[in-house]
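Researcher: Please translate sequence to structure tokens.
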Amino acid sequence: MNTTMHFIDAPTIYRFEEIRDCVDRVVKNAVHGEYNAGDVRMLLIKGLAFCAYSKDESGEVEIACVWEMVYYPRTTAVNVLALGGKNTKENWVKYGPILLDLWKKQGADCIECATTQAMARLLMSAGVPIEPTYVLSRGYLK
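Model: Translation complete:
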């Protein structure tokens, strides 16, 4: 079983093109205008976000995850900005432990992400150690 993960940062930003379609799908379907794939790329270049991904033998992205670290006074969180690929549930089982270990090494105490209720259920059923904690409400200022 291949569990090799590749990482994208400023020196390896050329690899972003390998996952751009995956990130595009996530931001088009799950994000509400806060950022797009180009913004994610810029966050990676600036070192404000991190990315890990893996491909299968045919070159298809199995899983791609983009996250940022959020520093609260008493907790450090991983905020997942994008998580996608093929068969997310099955591939989280395969790659999730690698990501969890990496996040702990980065100093994270917890994981947070703003998702739809359906995505939260999918992630929880896949074994991602999250549970609803807050209700995010938003009103736009005009």
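Researcher: Any highlights?
Model: The radius of gyration is 15 Å.
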